Amino acid sequence: MSVLYARRCCAVLAFLVLALVLVPFPPLAARPAYAATAVPGDRLTGSGAVNRSVLTAADLTSGAATGTVTDDAFALPAAAAAPTHTFEGTLTLNGVATAGGFRTIKDTYHYAATAALKHLPPVSIDLVQNGSHVIPTVRGLQITGSAYWNLILGGGRAWNEKGDGGRTRVSLPFALVERNANCVHNGLLTFLFDGSTISQVRYQIVNETCEYFQFDMWGQVGATYSRHTVSGDTALKNAYAAEVTHRIPTKPISALSTDYPNAGIDTSAFGSGVTASALSTYGVSYGGVNYVGACRTRQGAYPYCNQMVLPSYSLAKTMFAGIVLMRLTQVYGSSVSSQLIRDWVSEADTSAWNGVTFQDTANMATGNYLSSAFESDEAGGGMTAFFDAEAYGPKMTAALAFPHSAAPGTKWVYHSSDTFVLARAMQNYLASKAGTGSDIYRWIREQVLVPLHLSPDVLSTERTDNSATGQPFGGYGLFYTQDDIAKVSRFLNADGGKIGGVQKLDPTMLADSMQRNPANRGLTTTAETTGKTYQYQSGLWARQFTSADNPVFTSPVYVPFMSGFGGITAAMLPNGATYYYFSDNNEFGWSAAAAQAYKLPATGGGGRRLLGNDGFETGTAPPWTADDKVASDNTREVPHSGAPFAFIGIEAGGR
């Protein structure tokens, strides 16, 4: 693997040109029937009369892939009929190592010169079916054995169309993930099957969130369907039904202006400031609803928008390292943040790390750096060695190689390698408390991520040695859906680090990081935009907005935000709204969107809007608004006699 590839390698998918294979298979062995919980809303009632001209039954039976097609061809059509066949067993794609077509869109580091990058990794997956939903038995990051690509699979659909000759059609979303880095390339596959045969499998990739390596990949290959009973199939079906049940309700982004007509929101600001072709998706999480923009590809809208896989890059510095540090502090006490790195990372037992604490490292203030200029070290040769290294030993050596240049806690210098060191220190600290078999990511997964009902995509992380047992990267290497971003942002912002009313994160650390303590804004960074400086604390950035930015900011407001390589932002406003977008053209223009999101009324805990009148203090006084938690908003109520009084409370998350 080349140095540049390992550093921030982009996934190159090869879509294979396949020949049709009809494979007879025996019926499943008779077994007792156990009812699975139905997926919410799942009952296809269409006639099956689909007017299809792309990826027809003939195309999948004897055709070939000569290029990409509209993503709509992989989507569940409005007239889809309920599936007459049930898929359960192993699907294997044949000949993927050499099949398929490839078109380069952008290739900064010339990855496409490596022929093997242009093809899919080995694909052999177990699937079960719950109604019209087709569910991979293994979710989250799968290590494929490929030298270049790992794999993430989402839940797909099965349905019947009259033109398919009685066979059932299946569509599945998947993503290729670059090994030892964080780029994601989202794809789709489809095929036909019945009780005795399976067609060829058509696939394509026409979307990515990857700044340096962008491509189209397509192919059609023969497949093998090994029918067998999947162990724990009912539990898998029930788990998927629960996953769908717990997703935050979604509406199109345009619904913000109709749901809150008095706010005067210009929804065109959302998604602005970013080149449209570089924007994977965006949204506003507010009031218990995820208002989402389209999931864009080069062939139209991605049909599985709620399962589009999104890379974390440095969002992980908040959503992994920052949250872990706050959770450790909540569980084991305030002394955690002052623990010394050198006491918990044996390789850091050098003078350069004297006095450096967990909190210093989370704040990017270890004092160990070559240059304090903005991202000079992050883009330099020392960090290249860190990103290139896949094995733990060389990676830690590179992370610790920066010279001591300032007192700990005094100078902010951005290093992804520092978060790796912190993750290792927290791993060893946890092991001293919870036992040597403890794993820091599995611990935070069970403590926070699972109770938040996050998707399976975020329940695994990239690690050293391309191994499920390696050291988590800490500062990058996670994967999300839109729903995950909305839930974690709400957890940090409107919910104040609570789940079901139980405090999960240290409230003092969280308040500081979320800019709710004016006495502790964090360190001032060397980043600057149009005269604006930024703060940084525990993996969270912050920027101050004033009326000079937009008149909606009638008084200065600090907005904490997560930021990721290439053009990824999740800005958490003090009114309880979060604006997020994922793009890959190095564009970070979100000020206009933040101003529009800030027009929304302040919410109570859990994202609930109680009473709203943003002009009350300024004298502009539009009509008061109220939600269903308020006893009455009856404007015709006659005056009542007596001595009136009222209790007015501000829940967490109000401004």
Structure write-up:
The strands form six sheets. Strands 1, 2, 3, 4, 5, 6, 7, 8, 9, 10 and 11 form an eleven-stranded antiparallel sheet that branches. The chain has a nine-stranded mixed sheet with strand order 12-14-13-26-25-24-23-22-21, with helices on both faces. Strands 15-16 form a two-stranded antiparallel ribbon. By secondary structure, the chain is an alpha+beta fold. It is globular. α8 runs antiparallel to α9. The longest helix is centred in the middle third of the chain and has 19 residues, at 416-434. It is built from 14 helices and 28 strands. The protein is 19% helix and 22% strand.
Approximately what portion of the residues adopt beta-strand conformation?
15-25%
Number of strands: 28
Shape: globular
| Major β-sheet profile | 11 strands, antiparallel
The residue ranges in which pLDDT falls below 50 over 5 or more consecutive positions are: 1-33, 604-610, 612-623, 625-655
* Radius of gyration, in angstroms, nearest whole number: 26 Å
Based on secondary structure, the structural category is alpha+beta
Individual helix count:
14
Helix content: 10-25%
End-to-end separation in angstroms reads 50 Å
Mean pLDDT: 90
Chain-wise SSE layout:
Blueprint: H1 3-8, H2 57-62, E1 89-93, E2 101-107, E3 124-130, E4 133-136, E5 149-153, E6 156-160, E7 168-178, E8 184-193, E9 201-209, E10 213-221, E11 223-227, H3 233-245, E12 250-252, H4 255-259, E13 279-286, E14 289-292, E15 296-297, E16 300-301, E17 310-311, H5 316-332, H6 341-344, H7 358-362, H8 381-388, H9 392-399, H10 416-434, H11 440-449, E18 479-480, H12 482-492, E19 498-499, E20 502-503, H13 507-513, E21 523-529, E22 532-537, E23 540-545, E24 557-564, E25 568-572, E26 578-583, H14 591-598, E27 611-612, E28 625-626
Parallel strand pairs: 12-14
Antiparallel strand pairs: 1-3, 1-11, 2-10, 3-4, 4-6, 5-7, 6-7, 7-8, 8-9, 9-10, 13-14, 13-26, 15-16, 17-18, 19-20, 21-22, 22-23, 23-24, 24-25, 25-26, 27-28
Helix pairs in contact: 5-10, 5-11, 8-9, 9-10
